[in-house]
């Protein structure tokens, strides 16, 4: 068990304010006080900030060898959001604001904060019991470790809760060509798009779903979605699905995205088989499957829910094995 952490600070007074507020908000209580320092304790572990006369430098630099940052648990969405909102009033600045709260990846909801002296902390959010966003209990899968994937002028990145990605989700999930072949659903509005983005992030932690935004590698602009679903690492298999915005079609983006994610699934997750299914009549998906090395295996009757509700598409089933030769990409 960790006994204590001691931080040498260049100026004690602002450190008492920023660190004192943070630690006491997290449940620590004031512990020791002396002329050059203060400490706060939780359980048997305490944190010290000290303006030591033995310091050999006047500035903290977290990118040099040594401790880069401290990370703390925060339980519950409300507590997490409240801390982030109040932090600037107590000397903390939010880092990576454009990617908050998923700067650490979609399976990792966290806030990265820096105080005026350059010290960084990470607040790692865990969903409270019964709270929406908690990993599904009992699914028996370890959390998936997120990593960005790139190639062929594409970037497979996390979905972001920003205007561009929200608009892309609204356009994509409401596009007639997507809804024609996909699950029947009510029209997606801004709240629904934000829920889609939040859910794709949370589900990484459940170990069964790995969702990426297909983005332009140069601009970062969203182009569509590609995801592994029904992942079972012990069984060695998963499914793969995708959709693309109309403006991004016709240039091989889905083909390249499926190949990138398939390679990651085989090489990093260690999967043996990935299935790609599409409704009969969805000829463009059939061509994607062929270009990505997913040979046709047969028909699953009445497999995919369709519109109107209560009707079903027959499905072409394709699959690729890790032992299959890597495909060459042909066409657009």
The succession of helices and strands, N to C, reads EHEEEEHEEEEEHHHEEEHEHEE
Helix segment count? 7
Rg, rounded, reads 24 Å
Structural class: alpha+beta
Query: How is the main sheet built?
Result: 8 strands, mixed
What is the straight-line distance between the termini? 57 Å
- Average pLDDT: 88
Q: How much helix is in the residues?
A: 10-25%
- Number of β-strand runs: 16
What would your notes on this structure say?
This protein is α+β, with helices and mostly antiparallel strands and 332 residues long. The protein has helices at 12-25, 77-86, 163-174, 176-181, 190-204, 253-267, 283-291, and strands spanning 4-8, 29-34, 37-42, 45-50, 69-75, 92-94, 110-115, 120-126, 149-151, 154-157, 210-216, 222-232, 237-244, 273-279, 296-306, 311-321. The protein has an eight-stranded mixed beta sheet, sandwiched between helices. Strands 1-4-3-2 form a four-stranded mixed beta sheet, with helices on one face. Helix 3 (163-174) packs across helix 5. It starts with a strand and ends in an 11-residue tail after the last strand. The relative contact order is 0.09. Mean pLDDT is 88; it is low at 132-140.
Provide a concise account of the structure shown:
Helix content is 24%, strand content 33%.
């Amino acid at each position: 068990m960790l006994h204590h952490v001691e931080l040498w600070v260049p100026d004690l007074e602002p450190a008492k304010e920023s660190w004192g507020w943070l630690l006491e908000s997290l449940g620590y209580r004031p512990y020791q006080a002396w002329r050059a320092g203060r400490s706060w304790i939780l359980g048997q572990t305490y944190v010290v900030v000290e303006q030591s006369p033995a310091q050999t430098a006047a500035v903290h630099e977290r990118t040099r060898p040594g401790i880069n940052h401290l990370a703390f648990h925060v339980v519950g969405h409300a507590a997490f959001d409240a801390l982030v909102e109040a932090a600037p009033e107590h000397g903390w600045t939010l880092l990576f604001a454009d990617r908050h709260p998923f700067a650490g990846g979609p399976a990792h909801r966290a806030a990265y904060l820096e105080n005026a002296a350059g010290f960084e902390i990470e607040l790692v959010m865990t969903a409270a019991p019964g709270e929406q966003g908690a990993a599904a209990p009992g699914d028996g899968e370890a959390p998936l470790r997120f990593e960005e994937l790139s190639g062929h002028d594409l970037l497979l990145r996390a979905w972001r809760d920003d205007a561009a990605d929200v608009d892309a989700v609204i356009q994509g999930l409401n596009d007639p060509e997507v809804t024609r072949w996909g699950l029947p659903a009510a029209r997606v509005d801004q709240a629904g798009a934000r829920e889609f983005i939040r859910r794709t992030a949370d589900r990484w932690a459940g170990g069964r779903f790995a969702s990426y935004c297909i983005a332009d590698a140069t601009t970062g602009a969203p182009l569509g979605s590609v995801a592994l679903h029904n992942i079972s690492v012990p069984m060695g298999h998963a499914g793969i699905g995708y959709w693309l915005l109309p403006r991004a079609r016709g240039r091989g983006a889905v083909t390249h995205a499926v190949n990138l994610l398939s390679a990651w699934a085989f090489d990093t997750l260690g999967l043996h088989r990935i299935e790609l299914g599409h409704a009969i009549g969805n000829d463009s998906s059939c061509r994607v499957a062929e270009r990505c090395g997913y040979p046709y295996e047969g028909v699953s009757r009445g497999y995919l829910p369709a519109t109107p509700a209560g009707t079903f598409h027959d499905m072409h089933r394709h699959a690729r094995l890790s032992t299959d030769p890597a495909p060459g990409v042909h066409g657009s």
